[in-house]
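Sequence of Carbon monoxide dehydrogenase (Paraburkholderia silviterrae).
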Amino acid sequence: MELTETHTLPVPQQRAWEALNDTAILKVCIPGCESIDADGENAYAVALTAAVGPVKARFKGRMQLADIDAPRSYTIQFEGQGGAAGFGKGDARVMLEPAGEDATTLSYTASAQVGGKLAQIGSRLVDGAARKIAAEFFKRFTEQLGGGAQAGGIAEPGAEAQQEPSETQAASDAEGAGGDEPQKRKRSWTAWISKS
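Predicted 3D structure, token representation.
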């Protein structure tokens, strides 16, 4: 499995670097993370619960930081055991570059191998789960950095859905009474929900 992504963070490079090395922030941001504890120099013991398709398991593993070039980049080497679910191991190269005075571009390339039941699930499900976990991590990470929904051009997944009904309602109101029937039903259904 390989994953390459780029994200804009709403803070200067040094602040982004500090947050990426703050275990308290990382614990809150990593979906399913139960603990991150120092385990030697630039190494951490990690416990987390993850679901990949029908397989849900508690993984215990270790992360080691290498090739550290503060505050620009490092490589994370990781391995984890999930009991009967199988194992995962790999590495990720993380890079930070200034994107103006108060923003930073974070890019990473990760590769991983899985074994056991995880390998039997199929690469599409494993890749999909990895992308979903990464998306959730960056949503939470941006919020921790004080970005909220607007920062760095990253919108919260729920924000779009919340805006949709009011935009649809405004558009159908603009059409006047001659609008088509399904939109009228939707309007009255939305009004009924908001009253209850």
